[in-house]
Design brief:
With 209 residues, the protein is of the alpha/beta class. Among the domains are: 24-61, no CATH class; 76-182, Rossmann fold (3-Layer(aba) Sandwich), CATH 3.40.50.1860. It has 8 helices and 4 strands. It has helices spanning 29-38, 44-57, 64-74, 89-101, 140-149, 164-171, 191-195, 202-205; strands at 79-84, 105-110, 154-158, 176-180. Helix 6 (164-171) links the parallel strand 3 and strand 4 (176-180). It starts with 28 loop residues before the first helix and ends with a helix. The structure holds iron/sulfur cluster.
Length: 209
């Protein structure tokens, strides 16, 4: 088991591996030889290099929206797919406008595409947010396949639910990044619960709460 999140040494980031902990993954030299070969696979090295360049050029200056556009420019991605949650339709529309103002071509698909009732895939009335009314299920596979059909170069997720986003990543052919991670109670700032774990949010995050 690896415990990087709890490591106090961070030898990996200090160019001094002599102090690495006993369970540090860097003891496995052969593993890292194979990992380095992965970066040489088709299309990977350039993708990685441009990611690192965007990180450096915009460090502490560019909002993520700009980082996404700069990365797309560097990669010559012109067709951008936006997979968004209906609850963030306004945000998606603004993002699409920004992309178009920057001369990208955009295809956007909402989570509820297909209008498939939740009951069709085994969900009970009690599983619905509003049990007495029609509720279309989120359809992340539909979002991914529609964007695949449009041959988007790069996809951006805005606010897909936990798990629905995972299915989108699984079925999307184009590489994907996330602009907004949904958090319905923290204004889409999930880190807020972590910052407040030692105070207000602890009672919501312990087992049984
Ligand atoms: S890679 Fe090794 S040194 Fe770096 S955080 Fe993980 S355990 Fe610590």
């Amino acid at each position: 088991m690896f415990t990087c999140a709890e490591c106090r040494v961070l030898a990996c980031d200090k160019n001094d591996q002599s102090k690495k902990p006993a369970n540090c993954p860097m003891h496995d030299v052969e593993f890292y030889r194979k990992v380095k070969n992965k970066y040489q696979e088709d299309g990977v090295l350039g993708f990685f290099q441009e990611s690192a360049r965007v990180e450096k050029e915009g460090y502490g200056q560019w909002p993520r929206t700009k980082e996404i556009m700069q990365f797309c420019r560097k990669m010559n991605y012109r067709e951008i797919g936006v997979a968004f949650c209906g609850g963030l339709k306004k945000e998606a529309a603004i993002f699409v406008k920004i992309l178009k103002d920057n001369e990208f071509s955009v295809t956007s698909v909402v989570c509820k595409n297909g209008g498939i009732p939740k009951e069709e895939f085994g969900l009970e009335i009690s599983d619905k947010i509003n049990p007495d009314s029609f509720e279309a299920m989120c359809n992340p596979i539909g979002q991914a396949l529609l964007l695949n059909r449009e041959k988007t170069d790069f996809n951006v997720v805005i606010g897909l639910c936990v798990g629905h986003d995972s299915l989108f990543f699984k079925y999307s052919q184009a590489p994907t990044t996330v602009l907004i991670a949904k958090d319905r109670v923290l204004a889409h700032n999930p880190a807020g619960a972590l910052y407040c774990y030692e105070s207000y949010y602890k009672k919501h995050l312990l087992p049984g709460t």
